[in-house]
Amino acid sequence: MNKGRLLAFSIASVAAGCAPLLSEEPGRVYYPSEVVQNIELLDGRQIRVAGYLRLGTESMALWDSQQHFQDAERREANDGDPIWNHCITAYYNFSIERQFQDANGSMIEAAGTIGIYRDESTGIDLWGCNVVHVTLHHLNR
Questions:
Q1: CB 116 within 8 A of CB 6
Q2: Which residue range forms the structural domain that includes residue 16?
Q3: How many domains does the chain divide into?
């Protein structure tokens, strides 16, 4: 993971400590920016997430919206840009690989487990838009 995105994540984590935490009500659906803001509460938990799924070269990402993705692309967002707080890296369970790829470029809702990328050996995740990620287990469209 590059330093700029890690910095953006760190700032979001500090800010999350100052903001009220989201409720853990059953059936609650979180958008990527809510996951980033509340990572301390959500890390390791299985939750429902919603957003714009974008797969591409060196990218597997779930964005708050298509507009956030387009804004990042249009301004060629650099590391540390706050736009990255509207995106989490999206990994998937191989049992839903076909669904996952078919959903590229659309709004989705899915169940998945939230985590933080912690590769101490390299610190680099070639697929990630954020150190915060979701591993998707079940996908709805």
A1: no
A2: 3-140
A3: 1
Q: In the structure encoding, which two tokens stand for residue 51, read together?
A: 């957003």
Q: Are 16 and 79 in contact (CB under 8 A)?
A: no
- The CATH number of the domain holding residue 60 is 2.40.50.140
Bridge-based pairing of strands 106-116 and 87-92 is: unpaired
End-to-end C-alpha distance for the chain, whole angstroms: 29
Which pair of structure tokens corresponds to residue 100? 């996952």
pTM of the model: 0.77
For the stretch 74-82, contacts whose Cβ atoms lie closer than 8 Å and that sit 24 or more positions apart, written own/partner, are 78/4, 79/2, 79/3, 79/4, 79/5, 79/7, 79/8, 80/4, 80/5, 80/7, 80/8, 81/4, 81/8, 82/8
pLDDT tens-digit series, residues 48-97: 999 999 988 777 899 999 999 999 888 777 777 898 899 999 988 788 88
